């Protein structure tokens, strides 16, 4: 793939051998609490892929902090602690949330003196009411469905060291922003930002979200595999929603199952796949590191930018 010519490609055993001086601080049960709904990951994958990645990030963060001190010294300014931001991008249903939560857990363990926060860009989606008002409810997930001005302002505040920043909260249960509920981001040393648009150029802004990130990760897989995972997740969500009338999927769960699956396939082909092809996948080569998955969510390759 010509868009990946500036990446070194490592098979998982090769990547694993770069660093194995630490062991996984998780059990299979605690790992299950971290992984996203219907995603799959093993303790072996954590050892082989994420332990070397955490070590790489520790080196990157030390270098980042050192540069802030050097810059302050050059400018004759008092040193100011600047948060290190990690962006995680990729398609829906590919496992971004698992990667983000796993990094948060591992960093909290291995970097005990650092305050680690995690935020998802889902919180910056316009509400369902606003999407309807704008006539773009069927474009939910596309770039125009996000309040990018507010997201960019949030990242500016993080980098500026604002002490307490509020972020809207999105619920996958009700498939909407929750009114009057916010997440507080309080002076993080490390902020993980996860979402399909973390590498995109907003149409309404002149800067990328990734202009604020100091290390970016793209979780990758073939579209046909992602579609399979998307449909499997949808089917699992139906089972979960059967006893909950407040759940967005309740109507699908209590209706004809074949019709529900047909609707999910239509959603994939008319919304999620075009969004992947037009707006998400083209940003892959902006990532510093790509985690590639094969069948059954098994990570098989890690690609790292050469420069």
TrEMBL record:
Tell me a GO cellular component: cytoplasm
InterPro entries noted in UniProt: P-loop_NTPase, PanK, PRK/URK
Q: Which reaction does it catalyse?
A: (R)-pantothenate + ATP = (R)-4'-phosphopantothenate + ADP + H(+)
Q: Where does ATP bind?
A: 90-97
Q: Classify the main location.
A: cytoplasm
Any one Gene Ontology biological process term? Answer: coenzyme A biosynthetic process
Ligase: is it a keyword of this entry? no
Any idea which UniProt keywords this protein has? ATP-binding, Coenzyme A biosynthesis, Cytoplasm, Kinase, Nucleotide-binding, Transferase
Q: In which pathway does it act?
A: Cofactor biosynthesis; coenzyme A biosynthesis; CoA from (R)-pantothenate: step 1/5
Q: Which residues form the Phosphoribulokinase/uridine kinase domain?
A: 85-232
Q: Name one GO molecular function term.
A: pantothenate kinase activity
Which E.C. number(s) belong to this protein?
A: 2.7.1.33
For this chain, the family text in UniProt reads: Belongs to the prokaryotic pantothenate kinase family.
| NCBIfam families referenced in this protein's UniProt entry, alphabetically | panK_bact
Protein name as annotated: Pantothenate kinase
| Organism whose genome encodes this protein | Secundilactobacillus collinoides DSM 20515 = JCM 1123
Q: Per UniProt, what is the name of the gene that codes for the protein in this document?
A: coaA
């Amino acid at each position: 793939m010509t868009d990946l010519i500036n990446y070194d490609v490592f098979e998982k055993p090769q990547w694993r051998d770069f660093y194995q001086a630490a062991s996984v601080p998780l059990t299979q049960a605690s790992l299950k609490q971290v992984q996203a709904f219907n995603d799959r990951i093993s303790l072996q994958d954590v050892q082989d892929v994420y332990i070397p990645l955490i070590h790489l990030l520790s080196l990157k963060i030390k270098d980042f902090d050192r540069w802030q001190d050097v810059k302050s010294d050059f400018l004759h300014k008092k040193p100011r602690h600047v948060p290190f931001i990690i962006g995680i991008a990729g398609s829906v249903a590919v496992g971004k949330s698992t990667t983000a939560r796993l990094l948060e857990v591992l960093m909290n363990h291995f970097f005990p003196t650092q305050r680690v926060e995690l935020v998802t860009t889902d919180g910056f989606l316009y509400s369902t009411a606003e999407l309807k008002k704008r006539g773009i409810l069927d474009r939910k997930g596309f770039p125009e469905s996000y309040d990018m001005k507010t997201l960019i302002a949030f990242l500016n505040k993080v980098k500026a060291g604002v002490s307490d920043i509020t972020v809207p909260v999105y619920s996958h249960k009700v498939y909407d922003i929750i009114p009057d509920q916010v997440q507080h981001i309080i002076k993080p040393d490390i902020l993980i930002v996860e979402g399909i648009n973390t590498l995109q150029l907003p149409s309404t802004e002149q800067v990328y979200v990734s202009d604020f990130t100091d290390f970016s990760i793209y979780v990758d897989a073939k579209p046909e595999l992602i579609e399979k995972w998307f449909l499997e997740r949808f089917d699992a969500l139906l089972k979960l929603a059967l006893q909950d009338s407040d759940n967005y999927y309740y109507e699908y769960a209590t209706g004809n199952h074949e019709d529900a699956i047909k609707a999910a396939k239509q959603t994939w082909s008319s919304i999620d796949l075009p969004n992947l092809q037009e707006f998400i996948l083209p940003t892959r080569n902006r990532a510093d590191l790509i985690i590639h998955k094969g069948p059954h969510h098994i990570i098989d390759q890690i690609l790292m930018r050469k420069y």
